[in-house]
Amino acid sequence: MTSCPVCRQSDQIASVPAIVSAGSSQTSFTGTSYVPGATGYAGSTPVHVGSSTAHHHFHSHSQTQLAQTLDLWLEQPPNRSRFQLGVFALFFTVLALVGTDSMTSMLMFLCLLWIAVPTLVVRRYGPRFGMLAGLATFGATALLVTEPGRLDAVYQGTVVVGPIVAVLALGSWAWAWIGYRRRAPLREHLYEVWSRLFYCSRDGRVFDPATGMHTDPHDVNALLHAR
Ligand SMILES: [Zn+2]
Question: Is this model's pTM higher than 0.85 or not?
Answer without folding.
Answer: no
